[in-house]
Amino acid sequence: MTAAPASHWRGALAPPAGVLDVSRRLEDAGYETWCVGGAVRDAVLGRPSLDWDLATAARPEQVQQLFRRTVPKGIAFGTVGVLDRDGVMHEVTTFRRDVRTDGRHAVVEFGASLADDLARRDFTINAIAYRPATGAVADPFDGVGDLARRVVRAVGEPGERMREDRLRALRAIRFAARFGFAIDSATWAAIVASGPHLGRLSPERVREELEKTMRQAPRPAWALERWRAAGALATLAPALDAQPPEAFAACDCLPPPTLAARPQRLWNRMTAPWLGLERAEVDRALTALRCSRQEVRWAADLAGRWHLLAPAFRAHLADGAPPPPDAELRRWAAACGRTLAAPVLRLAAARFAAERAAGVPAPGAGAVRAVYRRVVRIAYRDPIEVADLAVDGGDLAEAGVRAGPLVGRILRRLLDDVVEEPGRNTRGWLLDRARFLSSQADTI
Ligand code: ATP
Ligand code: MG
């Protein structure tokens, strides 16, 4: 095992006290223990990390015996969650090697060495280890060098590694997008060769990759374009494959969905690429990816509103067009409803920004911002939903409108009248109008 030369990043290899305690306990019992994976990579990159995973020579049952508080995280894969004295959990995994893989699942074997364990990892940058007990660094595939060269490279023979687990194709793209790295050419060739086989992956794993990409990549469009170039979209989301680059670039123009942010930020980034598709198509595709019902509805509803309103946005917000009147903005707010009015405009702003950046004529940022503020104010000030009307179905029945679907149709018509002119939202005006509409029942 080659020890990497000491250099500036060594000081960053500073796991939290809880991790050091767990490692010391294992080492004192005679089990070699190393920090591995993402946290070591991030430390070398100078990025702080919360999850420091440990790999150890101890078997899962030995880990369980050594610590008072453990959680069986994935015993079959050798992973035990160990709670430190502050109750924070750390994953401790027995050194392992793969004995069999089928592109989806691995069967692992214990009794392996650190060298075996690092050799089964996906990319060189994820196969660096640090041993707190001695300060040693193990970097058999020159992951530190690849971090300095800013490149994602498969451990070992790329084609073989991708065949073992097709998810690695998507992971490579995600890590490159997250850190702004290039993808090594042989690794890229293996990713492209994987494209047609990605259908073997479970939809849950694919969704998770997409979601992590949206969270972690400062510019997810780069990753989506790599998915397209590798044939991953053709296999996994054919409806997206034909979308223009601006549909993906819109993701880059939305604020990053940090963990502390409201979940809508993530959903908006997940929605942006699909805006050009029909509502039902978005519903179908995201349901197939096992997105939550809530997420699917959010995306499908927004796509539906986008189809309805994008032409009006483009016409009224074009360079040189006069500011749209309040009545127009009320129509937009009414078409969206209070919950979706702001998100539709946020997505529209992102999409238009992406179009302009691509040289496609689209409304300017200033016009969209101004209208966003006005629409939000209007949506909370003016009547824009049936529930805001000064009358309800019961009032219409009393006024002589016969029960049944006609009531709902008349209420919708009354709302249209009120959206045109909010001053009409009085019982007197609405009931008069309802009686008239009721007398014309055949034509409405
Ligand atoms: P993140 O910060 O996104 O969690 P990570 O590198 O910690 O990044 P994980 O998915 O948590 O990624 O995996 C932890 C480690 O396990 C990786 O660094 C890598 O060494 C290894 N690993 C994970 N998934 C695979 C895989 N599909 N094939 C091979 N090794 C993998
Ligand atoms: Mg991790």
Quick summary:
This protein has 444 residues and is of the alpha+beta class. 53% of the residues lie in helices and 10% in strands.
Description of the molecule:
With 444 residues, the protein is α+β, with helices and mostly antiparallel strands. The protein has 22 helices and 11 strands. The strands form 3 sheets. Strands 3-4-5-2-1-8-9 form a 7-stranded mixed sheet. Strand 6 and strand 7 form a beta hairpin. Helix 6 packs parallel to helix 8 and helix 18 packs antiparallel against helix 19. The longest helix is centred in the last third of the chain and has 25 residues. The protein starts with 16 loop residues before the first helix and ends in a 5-residue tail after the last helix. Bound molecules: adenosine-5'-triphosphate (ATP) and magnesium ion (MG).
Q: What topology emerges from the helices and strands here?
A:
Layout: H1 17-28, E1 33-36, H2 38-44, E2 53-56, H3 60-66, E3 70-74, E4 79-83, E5 89-94, E6 97-101, E7 106-109, H4 114-119, E8 129-131, E9 136-138, H5 143-149, E10 151-152, H6 158-164, H7 167-179, E11 182-183, H8 185-194, H9 203-216, H10 220-229, H11 232-236, H12 238-241, H13 245-252, H14 263-271, H15 279-288, H16 293-317, H17 326-336, H18 338-357, H19 365-381, H20 393-398, H21 405-420, H22 427-439
Parallel strand pairs: 2-5, 10-11
Antiparallel strand pairs: 1-2, 1-8, 3-4, 4-5, 6-7, 8-9
This protein binds adenosine-5'-triphosphate (ATP) and magnesium ion (MG).
Residues 37-38, 51 line the site of magnesium ion.
